[in-house]
TrEMBL record:
Keywords: NAD. The lineage of its organism: Bacteria, Pseudomonadati, Fibrobacterota, Fibrobacteria, Fibrobacterales. SUPFAM superfamilies: NAD(P)-binding Rossmann-fold domains. It comes from Fibrobacter succinogenes (strain ATCC 19169 / S85). Residues 13-277 form the NAD-dependent epimerase/dehydratase domain. PROSITE patterns: PROKAR_LIPOPROTEIN. PANTHER family: EPIMERASE-RELATED. This is NAD-dependent epimerase/dehydratase.
Length: 364
């Protein structure tokens, strides 16, 4: 295991995408477990999905900050707004930056490509530039940023390893995430900025993203509509519970890749990429079956719900891949951690949250 070389206590930390699914949970964990001198969350709160969920997440962070007496500041701004990003870094002198803000979603990138260029490319460039200036002043110690399992694209070899070539993206979203890794590598090499990219694998859980399949399935089943299960139910996904993702992020935050020089005397890029996934892909049809059972248990669906009458097996759609499967060997070796939340346990927590947020069968 690697030793911790970044101390979070007493340091200013920036989390972009703080109103997002992973960002909110990360902020809450930092408030619970650490005493940062400043915890700043940034989000543009786009209407890509229900903003009420985003505002509720922010309310939870605010409440926790008040209860714990920790410093928390929320800033509504867009990553593509360079002046806003620059002023934020100048004001707070961040030591650790966690960039989770991005335009997410494979299918949305086909119909709304501009959003991905603005947020995922221009926005990430602005973060890198701000980190460069912060590092030059001896402030920024570690940049951690979200990548995605989508970068593996049409790779046939499984499980996916960070040693694999990832030059075959099948969506613009995947291409922007691979671009983030390349941009971070260039800045690590040129400016000696320690950076770590995290390839997340199908994150799910309470108060998650409504555009994710499990959330959409739940909405349709509750409304009595038919759900479409792509690739005739044969897709496999490495579903990863959000608490496992956050635990991995926090561990990675505390070890920045070591700065060292090569044989030519020039800096080697202090740069790493890790997979964070469950290392156990589940058949999508099995996933949906467990989801339905937990929705019945949580009384989101009636006990006699006819699941068979509400599902349709259909072909694969553009941008999707048949399987995602994380090789987490490097994460286990370096940080002694491997996601392990059982699928049923994670879906039960989601179903219980959904029942509370949207109401049980017959209540709404």
């Amino acid at each position: 295991m690697l030793d911790k070389n970044v101390i979070l206590n007493g340091k200013a930390v920036l989390v972009t995408g703080a109103a997002g699914f992973i960002g909110c949970n990360l902020c809450k964990k930092l408030l619970n477990d650490y005493n940062c001198s400043e915890l700043v969350g940034l989000d543009s709160i786009t209407d890509y999905y229900d903003v009420n969920i985003k505002h509720e997440r922010l309310k939870e962070i605010e409440t926790l900050a008040t209860l714990t007496g920790k410093k928390w500041t929320f800033v509504k701004a867009n990553l593509a707004d360079k002046a806003a990003i620059d002023s934020l870094f100048e004001k707070y002198h961040f030591a650790v930056v966690v960039n989770l803000a991005a335009q997410a979603g494979v299918r949305y990138s086909i119909t709304n490509p501009d959003a991905y260029i603005q947020s995922n490319l221009i926005g990430f460039y602005n973060i890198l530039e701000a980190c460069r200036r912060g590092a030059e002043k001896g402030e920024v110690e570690h940049l951690v940023y979200a990548s995605s399992s989508s970068v593996y694209g049409s790779n046939k070899k499984i499980p996916y390893s960070t040693d694999d070539k990832v030059d075959n993206p099948v969506s613009l979203y995947a291409a922007t995430k691979k671009s983030n890794e390349l941009m971070a590598h260039a800045y690590s090499k040129l400016y000696n900025i320690p950076s770590t990219g995290l390839r997340f694998f199908t994150v799910y859980g309470p108060a998650g993203r409504p555009d994710m399949a499990y959330f959409g399935f739940t909405n349709k089943l509750k409304a009595g509509k038919t759900i479409q299960i792509f690739n005739y139910g044969k897709c496999k996904r490495d579903f990863t519970f959000v608490d496992d993702i956050v635990e991995g992020v926090v561990r990675v935050m505390q070890h920045a890749p070591e700065k060292q020089n090569g044989e030519d005397g020039l800096p080697l890029p202090p740069y790493k990429v890790y997979n964070i996934g469950n290392n156990h892909p589940e058949n999508l049809l099995d996933f949906v079956t467990i989801l339905q059972e937990e929705l019945v248990r949580a009384k989101v669906l009636p006990a006699d719900y006819d699941f068979e009458a509400h599902k349709e097996l259909v072909p694969m759609q553009p941008g999707d891949v048949p399987v995602t499967y994380a090789d987490t060997t490097a994460l286990e070796q370096d940080f002694g951690f491997k996601p392990a939340t059982p699928l049923r346990e994670g879906l039960r927590k989601f179903a219980e949250w959904y029942a509370e947020w949207y109401g049980k069968e017959g209540e709404k």
